[in-house]
Input
Amino acid sequence: MDSLLIALPGTITDEQFERLEALSFEASRHWSREEAGMILDAVAYLRAVIAEVRGPGEAPLELQNTLLAFILSDPELRQRAGGWSNQPSAVVRDAQFDRVAARIGRG
Output
């Protein structure tokens, strides 16, 4: 989603805003729809990886925030997470999974 460079600020939808708030994120009305979507996708992906590695249950927010920053800062991980919040699928154990899983061990 490198199209963020041309995303229009302030286009976050009410649904995205509410979903982010429900995930304990302080969403901003200044965010673009694309930014909010990317964060929602990354959170859904990182939570799926955490569940695969640690089993069911809530992970500490600090760990989730660390993984979110890691995913959003890497183009390959952003691509892997893309669309994740809209697709109920199983986690694929690939190179991207391994990279995120390794961070969970450090968290």
